[in-house]
Amino acid sequence: MTTPTLHLGFLTVIREPSGYLGGYLVTNQWGRPLEFRLSTPVQPNRVQQILYAETLEPYVCGELIGKTLVDKTGTAVQVVVTDTEAALELRQRVEMPVVFLDSKQNHEIMKDENTKEGSGTSVRSHARYPDDAAAIQETMDKIKGNFDLAEPFQRIREAMAEARKMGVTQRA
Questions:
Q1: What is the value of pTM for the model shown?
Q2: Is residue 78 within 8 Å of residue 135, measured between CB atoms?
Protein backbone atom coordinates (compact mmCIF):
# COMPACT_ATOMS: atom_id res chain seq x y z
CA MET A 1 0.00 0.00 0.00
CA THR A 2 1.41 3.37 -0.97
CA THR A 3 1.17 6.35 1.34
CA PRO A 4 -0.57 9.32 -0.27
CA THR A 5 1.70 12.30 -0.85
CA LEU A 6 1.27 15.10 1.62
CA HIS A 7 0.83 18.60 0.20
CA LEU A 8 1.43 21.71 2.30
CA GLY A 9 0.44 25.29 1.58
CA PHE A 10 2.64 28.18 2.73
CA LEU A 11 0.97 31.59 2.86
CA THR A 12 2.65 34.88 3.64
CA VAL A 13 1.28 38.41 3.44
CA ILE A 14 3.56 41.42 3.54
CA ARG A 15 2.57 45.03 3.95
CA GLU A 16 4.17 47.46 1.53
CA PRO A 17 3.48 51.09 0.58
CA SER A 18 1.42 49.78 -2.36
CA GLY A 19 -0.71 47.67 0.00
CA TYR A 20 -0.86 44.11 1.29
CA LEU A 21 0.72 41.55 -1.02
CA GLY A 22 0.32 37.79 -0.62
CA GLY A 23 2.30 34.81 -1.82
CA TYR A 24 1.20 31.17 -1.64
CA LEU A 25 3.50 28.21 -2.27
CA VAL A 26 2.30 24.60 -2.38
CA THR A 27 4.96 21.98 -1.73
CA ASN A 28 5.11 18.26 -1.28
CA GLN A 29 6.16 16.80 2.08
CA TRP A 30 9.84 17.24 1.19
CA GLY A 31 9.50 20.96 0.43
CA ARG A 32 9.58 20.64 -3.35
CA PRO A 33 7.44 23.30 -5.07
CA LEU A 34 4.28 22.19 -6.83
CA GLU A 35 2.50 25.49 -7.40
CA PHE A 36 2.99 29.20 -6.65
CA ARG A 37 0.48 32.05 -6.63
CA LEU A 38 0.88 35.75 -6.05
CA SER A 39 -1.81 38.30 -5.23
CA THR A 40 -2.13 41.79 -6.57
CA PRO A 41 -1.65 44.51 -3.93
CA VAL A 42 -4.69 45.22 -1.74
CA GLN A 43 -4.77 48.80 -0.46
CA PRO A 44 -7.66 49.53 1.93
CA ASN A 45 -8.90 53.10 1.70
CA ARG A 46 -9.43 55.36 4.70
CA VAL A 47 -13.17 54.61 4.95
CA GLN A 48 -12.44 50.86 5.06
CA GLN A 49 -9.75 51.44 7.69
CA ILE A 50 -12.26 53.29 9.86
CA LEU A 51 -15.13 50.84 9.38
CA TYR A 52 -13.12 47.62 9.77
CA ALA A 53 -10.95 48.98 12.63
CA GLU A 54 -8.98 46.14 14.28
CA THR A 55 -10.65 43.54 12.04
CA LEU A 56 -9.17 45.06 8.86
CA GLU A 57 -5.87 43.17 8.79
CA PRO A 58 -7.40 39.70 9.46
CA TYR A 59 -10.03 40.44 6.78
CA VAL A 60 -7.46 41.53 4.19
CA CYS A 61 -4.88 38.82 5.00
CA GLY A 62 -7.21 35.89 5.63
CA GLU A 63 -10.32 36.48 3.59
CA LEU A 64 -9.33 38.68 0.66
CA ILE A 65 -5.78 37.52 -0.04
CA GLY A 66 -5.51 34.09 1.60
CA LYS A 67 -8.86 32.71 0.43
CA THR A 68 -8.36 34.01 -3.11
CA LEU A 69 -4.89 32.45 -3.42
CA VAL A 70 -6.02 29.10 -2.00
CA ASP A 71 -9.10 29.04 -4.28
CA LYS A 72 -7.06 29.79 -7.40
CA THR A 73 -4.57 27.03 -6.65
CA GLY A 74 -5.20 23.71 -8.36
CA THR A 75 -3.35 21.55 -5.83
CA ALA A 76 -5.27 20.63 -2.68
CA VAL A 77 -3.31 20.77 0.59
CA GLN A 78 -3.78 19.06 3.94
CA VAL A 79 -2.55 22.04 6.00
CA VAL A 80 -1.88 25.72 5.29
CA VAL A 81 1.08 27.17 7.21
CA THR A 82 1.35 30.95 7.52
CA ASP A 83 3.91 33.27 9.04
CA THR A 84 1.35 36.09 9.09
CA GLU A 85 -0.73 35.91 12.26
CA ALA A 86 -3.66 37.83 10.76
CA ALA A 87 -3.90 35.19 8.02
CA LEU A 88 -5.09 32.63 10.60
CA GLU A 89 -8.55 34.01 9.78
CA LEU A 90 -8.33 32.04 6.54
CA ARG A 91 -9.32 29.01 8.63
CA GLN A 92 -12.88 30.33 8.87
CA ARG A 93 -13.16 30.16 5.07
CA VAL A 94 -11.49 26.80 4.28
CA GLU A 95 -11.93 23.17 5.32
CA MET A 96 -8.29 22.36 6.08
CA PRO A 97 -6.38 23.42 9.21
CA VAL A 98 -4.43 26.69 9.08
CA VAL A 99 -1.50 27.19 11.44
CA PHE A 100 0.59 30.20 12.35
CA LEU A 101 4.32 29.46 12.39
CA ASP A 102 5.87 31.53 15.14
CA SER A 103 9.62 31.82 15.53
CA LYS A 104 10.76 31.65 19.16
CA GLN A 105 13.76 33.77 18.22
CA ASN A 106 11.50 36.80 17.86
CA HIS A 107 9.74 36.53 21.20
CA GLU A 108 8.67 34.11 23.89
CA ILE A 109 5.27 32.54 23.43
CA MET A 110 2.78 31.29 25.92
CA LYS A 111 2.03 27.58 25.65
CA ASP A 112 -1.62 26.66 25.43
CA GLU A 113 -3.71 23.84 23.98
CA ASN A 114 -3.51 25.37 20.48
CA THR A 115 0.32 25.57 20.44
CA LYS A 116 2.69 22.81 19.33
CA GLU A 117 6.41 23.39 19.75
CA GLY A 118 9.16 22.15 17.47
CA SER A 119 12.78 23.00 16.92
CA GLY A 120 13.08 26.76 17.23
CA THR A 121 9.51 27.38 16.12
CA SER A 122 5.99 26.67 17.22
CA VAL A 123 2.72 26.42 15.35
CA ARG A 124 -0.55 27.76 16.65
CA SER A 125 -3.94 26.88 15.24
CA HIS A 126 -7.03 29.06 15.15
CA ALA A 127 -8.61 29.23 18.60
CA ARG A 128 -12.09 28.48 17.20
CA TYR A 129 -10.91 25.14 15.76
CA PRO A 130 -9.45 23.11 18.64
CA ASP A 131 -10.23 19.86 16.78
CA ASP A 132 -7.57 20.79 14.19
CA ALA A 133 -4.84 19.87 16.69
CA ALA A 134 -4.86 16.14 15.85
CA ALA A 135 -4.62 16.71 12.08
CA ILE A 136 -1.90 19.30 12.58
CA GLN A 137 0.10 16.99 14.84
CA GLU A 138 -0.25 14.12 12.35
CA THR A 139 1.03 16.38 9.55
CA MET A 140 3.92 17.68 11.67
CA ASP A 141 4.91 14.09 12.51
CA LYS A 142 4.92 13.13 8.81
CA ILE A 143 7.20 15.99 7.76
CA LYS A 144 9.44 15.97 10.83
CA GLY A 145 13.05 16.04 9.68
CA ASN A 146 12.14 16.49 5.99
CA PHE A 147 12.65 20.27 5.93
CA ASP A 148 12.44 23.42 8.02
CA LEU A 149 8.89 24.81 7.96
CA ALA A 150 10.22 28.39 8.03
CA GLU A 151 12.37 27.94 4.91
CA PRO A 152 9.58 28.09 2.26
CA PHE A 153 8.68 31.60 3.45
CA GLN A 154 12.13 32.80 2.40
CA ARG A 155 11.55 31.30 -1.06
CA ILE A 156 8.14 32.98 -1.27
CA ARG A 157 9.59 36.39 -0.36
CA GLU A 158 12.39 36.01 -2.90
CA ALA A 159 9.91 34.96 -5.61
CA MET A 160 7.70 37.94 -4.70
CA ALA A 161 10.70 40.27 -5.05
CA GLU A 162 11.55 38.79 -8.47
CA ALA A 163 7.93 39.08 -9.59
CA ARG A 164 7.90 42.71 -8.45
CA LYS A 165 11.01 43.39 -10.57
CA MET A 166 9.23 41.86 -13.54
CA GLY A 167 6.11 43.95 -12.89
CA VAL A 168 3.93 40.90 -12.31
CA THR A 169 2.36 42.27 -9.11
CA GLN A 170 1.12 45.40 -10.87
CA ARG A 171 -1.19 43.54 -13.23
CA ALA A 172 -4.79 43.06 -12.19
A1: 0.86
A2: yes
